[in-house]
Design goal:
Helix content is 50%, strand content 14%. Helix 6 runs parallel beside helix 8, helix 7 runs antiparallel to helix 8 and helix 8 runs antiparallel to helix 9. Strand 6 and strand 7 form a beta hairpin. It has eleven helices and ten strands. It starts with 11 loop residues before the first helix and ends in a 5-residue tail after the last helix. It has three domains: 108 residues, Butyryl-Coa Dehydrogenase, subunit A, domain 1; 120 residues, Butyryl-CoA Dehydrogenase, subunit A, domain 2 (Beta Barrel); 148 residues, Butyryl-CoA Dehydrogenase, subunit A, domain 3, CATH 1.20.140. With 401 residues, the protein is an alpha+beta fold. The strands form three sheets. The protein has a five-stranded antiparallel beta sheet, covered by helices on one side. It has a three-stranded mixed beta sheet with strand order 1-4-5. A two-stranded antiparallel sheet has the order 9-10. The structure holds flavin-adenine dinucleotide. Its cofactor is FAD. Keywords: FAD, Flavoprotein, Oxidoreductase. It comes from Streptomyces lasiicapitis. Belongs to the acyl-CoA dehydrogenase family.
Length: 401
């Protein structure tokens, strides 16, 4: 274990899981991450290893074949994995959100049908809210489901599905107006459908097309796609929770735990950037001494390490709050906001410490520099986090005049 980002009060089991994951990251992820990332190659061997470790079922209850671990254990594992390669944590994240939504909101039949196969990683989850015309404003969704007997017919276009190609189960949020008269608030006329499909690209099920991978600046290896529904027929028993009109709340619940996860990713990437910076600073000499001996560089390292510690503490706090059964939207929003901003700053400082070499693809920091910005956007931008934080503060500190 490194000196930074320690977590007090972990159980023996948590410590054992984390040490196994860290070992896996050091041996199986870090040595290959940059090469695979440059080739934009799906890390199949790593994913197989994670399946063997049981990571796809980490938070799935034991009765469904998972490890039944807490959000904190999960977030600390994500932090370790992101330290190795952020894209790998992205492969697990959407799966985790869909499994969480099923556990919290699914019917018994849906849990029995999906969770055991999700725990082994045989069924792999993705979730889809965003569309070409919207991301932050989920209430503006235009994709639509119309009931036709025992089925629903879905039409519309979705955007930015992490794991859109590799997944076999997509939780899709669409508008469904039946039973919800004209004028119903948008939040009350949305439904989450559990859409099973073949992995891959092209027509993966009648009426459902995954066109291909979106070419991205970073966050490579993991596939990010569009999803096109054209007369897609889904049986009524694949409405999450069995009743329409609850989709918005189900997705927001999923995204809330997802925010702790994104914070954890920010912590992991920042830790790696610090490790790279502090190591390089002791090897590179200028003006007759290692640059680490120049006070300006030491100050940079001090700021970076302080940010790593602060982000880790907030992320752990948000996870523990959720695990205790309390509402954690304020803490999750703050942790996501702070960890992603700090991550970008720590990565930039490590990049500066590398001088010109930081710009070379031979150095790992170049990859981190392209990966960090994704955390500013995913699971809600900084502005959206601040809106959530601000609203909650006004609830808590209501003026009693
Ligand atoms: C690599 C990647 C993977 C993704 N994976 C998924 C996924 O798996 N599933 C999924 O559903 N989505 C996914 N997304 C989409 C992501 O959630 C959205 O991109 C994000 O929510 C922002 O939405 P937008 O891109 O439409 O930006 P917009 O909503 O158009 O926002 C543009 C800018 O305006 C600001 N803004 C918007 N509204 C306000 C306001 N009211 N006040 C102040 N500022 C505001 C935003 O903060 C931002 O700076 C992914 C995105 C990326 C890049």
């Amino acid at each position: 274990m490194t000196r930074l980002a320690q977590t007090a009060g972990l159980t023996d089991i948590q410590r054992e899981i984390l040490s196994t994951v860290r070992d896996f990251v050091d041996k199986e992820i870090l040595p290959v991450a940059t090469e695979l990332e440059h080739r934009d190659e799906y890390p199949q061997a790593i994913v197989d290893g994670l399946k063997e470790l049981g990571l796809f079922g980490l938070m799935i209850p034991e009765e469904y074949g998972g490890l039944g671990e807490s959000l904190l254990t999960y977030a600390l594992c994500v932090e370790e994995i992101a330290r190795g390669w952020m894209s790998v944590s992205g492969i697990i994240n959407t799966h985790f959100i869909v499994a969480y939504m099923l556990k919290q909101h699914g019917t018994q039949e849906q849990k029995d049908h999906f969770l055991p196969r999700m725990a082994t990683g045989e069924v792999r989850g993705a979730f889809s809210m965003s569309e070409p015309g919207l991301g932050s404003d989920v209430s503006a969704i235009t994709s639509k489901a119309v009931q036709d007997g025992e089925e629903y017919v879905l039409n519309g276009q979705k955007m930015w599905l992490t794991n859109g190609g590799s997944s076999t189960l997509v939780a899709v949020l669409v508008r469904s107006d039946e039973g919800h008269p004209e004028g119903t608030a948008p939040h009350k006329s949305m439904t989450t459908f559990l859409v099973e499909k073949e992995p891959g690209f092209g027509e993966v099920r009648p009426g459902l097309t995954i066109p291909g991978k979106i070419d991205k600046m970073g966050y490579k290896g993991v596939d990010t796609t569009e999803l096109i529904m054209d007369g897609l027929r889904i049986p009524a028993n694949r409405v999450l929770g069995g009743a329409t009109g609850r989709g918005f709340y189900q997705m927001m619940d999923g995204v809330e735990v997802g925010r702790v996860n994104v914070a954890a990713r920010g912590c992991g990437v920042a830790q790696r950037a610090f490790e790279l910076g502090v190591s390089y600073a002791q090897q590179r000499h200028t003006f007759g001494k290692p640059i680490a001996q120049h006070q300006a560089i030491q100050f940079k390292l001090a700021e970076m390490a302080t940010k790593v510690e602060a982000a880790h503490a907030m992320m752990v706090n948000a996870a523990r709050k959720k695990d205790s059964g309390e509402r954690n939207d304020l803490e999750a929003g703050m942790a996501k906001y702070l960890a992603s901003e700090y991550c970008k700053e720590v990565v930039e400082d490590a990049f500066r410490i590398h001088g010109g070499y930081g710009f070379s693809k031979e150095y790992e920091i170049e990859r981190l520099y392209r990966e960090a910005p994704m955390l500013l956007i995913g699971e809600g931008t900084a502005e959206i986090q601040k809106m959530i934080i601000g609203r909650r503060l006004l609830e808590e500190y209501r003026f009693q005049g």
